[in-house]
Amino acid sequence: MTISYGQDLGRTPRPGGAARAIALIAILAASGCSSFDTIGSSSPPDSGSGSSFTQRVKNLFSSGSASGQEKVAATAPAGPAPNLECPGVTVRSGAATLAVNTPGVEPSATNLRFQASVAQTARECAVSGGNMTMKIGIQGRVVLGPAGTPGQVEVPMRLALVREGIEPRTIWTKLYRVPVMIPSGQTNVPFVQVEEGMSFPVPSAQDLEAYVVYVGFDPSALSTTPERPKRPAKKAK
Asked: Which of 37, 83, 140, 236 is buried most, with the most CB atoms less than 10 Å from its CB?
């Protein structure tokens, strides 16, 4: 996926561009994409659970190990609802990475400004009053390319809850424009995006098995311009 931003973060490749391109490929290949999707609960969410989930997600991702996963699962409320499964989270095919090149030039390894990738996901479910609420955590990484410079970049991500089948149906979707700051002297930084309010009516257990949460980058979102508010019609004199 290749897109261009309006603001230039560095049009001229710096010395050592080829070496940085090789290092970038090595970092992204090593990061891979894993999932810690075993967090689950059927207890109603309380007012303080949002920050708690966010902190646990950050702790989980920073640990990057099975022991971190067990720690988060242990702190989650116990007692899964009978015959109900928390929908799984998966990275949409073709949307696991996002490459942003220098505007107006042919995309290439040396013209790459930065590349973002999805590394890990986590989820937590709660059922209350006939509704299921999901909390989704996503960890990604932004790596500067040979034509990139430190500063803030915007990473477009989309979450979508889909009921798979012969005719897939989108239940819930939301676009995020995640700001990521790359400090001076650093070439790659992680970022975390957390959604705490994905809520939907609980379907039958059989239907729920077909529910999947897709995550991924949505580069088309950055090329859209917000609609201007319509002016009220003038009253006839």
From this structure: 140
Give the domain ranges of the chain. 31-222
70, amino acid identity: E
Burial group, residue 155, by CB count within 10 angstroms (0-12, 13-18, 19+): buried
